[in-house]
Amino acid sequence: MKKKALLLASTVLFLACNNSPKEGESQQLDSASTTVTDSGNLTTDSSATTPFDITRLPLSTADIGDFPFINLPQGLEEMNKPMVRNYDVCFFPVDGKMTPFEGKLYKTFVSPKRREDFSQHYFEKSMANYLESVGAVKIFDSEITRAEFDRYNKQDANKGGEGDMGYPGSIIKFWAIRSADQGNIYIQYTANNAGGTLNVLQEAGFEQTITKITADQIAEELTQKGKAILYINFDSNKADLTAEGKEVVQEIAAALKKENSLNISIEGHTDNSGNAAHNKTLSEQRANAVLQALTKDGIEQNRLKSAGFGAEKPLLANDSEENKAKNRRVELVKTN
């Protein structure tokens, strides 16, 4: 009996020694839970996998500078004008599942400054070395499956845009930094022998900036500034007011009843998407729809004019979706 016990103990010791990490090898902890059955066999419970939680990462005190926190490696540059949004969504691979994170976003394609061949190895090594130096942790380094792409791609409003990635067959390297100064930062990049792609997101909560337009605000802007800029909702590509749009028109009517000496021109504007002639016609129809709704609310028609300018008078350059949204507007202009 003693010999059997001694033999069993020796076997356990031998297995333990052979399963220890070899010198120079890094050890990775499996997030799945392992249990021992009554018979002594090891089983893995894959359902117990710990979900990604950035608060589990070590806090980095490195100075990472200002957004987007990364200068491209020497000899490389942004291929086109990068996408920069104060608030947007970007999908990052967590355990192979493209997961949305929200905040300040930077996306770009990367190319060499000169026409020499792009070095995928140089780009990837430069990125990895820098990220390690500032305390970033690699979360994922593999490709997205076709099934996963099919599942998520229609959820991504920026799919196909500048700096887009996450296509089947390409390897994504995803890192995260829990920065003491800058909060949670997510970085992902991919490359081939022609060029690279880089995305950076600084996580931030959503702040609602839309407030209800009131008659007092409209009246004040018209009397003091001579103009009020409004965003009135219409049905897509139509001149029919939505329920929300009708509420805004009611506030305009209330403002004109309050300041009954005011006469206004209702001017419709669009962004530069689509056909210019169609946009101008649509803006005219929408301005007239507001005029007709105001007359139904009791405003004398001789106090009102309407006009449409399409994309002829943008407030901002039509170079981003955010700017285009600001150009799609109705202006009330004091005429007396």
TrEMBL record:
UniProt subcellular location: Cell outer membrane
Main location: membrane
Boundaries of every OmpA-like domain copy: 221-336
UniProtKB keywords: Cell outer membrane, Membrane
GO CC terms in record: cell outer membrane
UniProt cross-references to PROSITE patterns, sorted A to Z: OMPA_2, PROKAR_LIPOPROTEIN
Name the UniProt record assigns to this protein: OmpA family protein
Organism of this sequence: Sphingobacterium humi
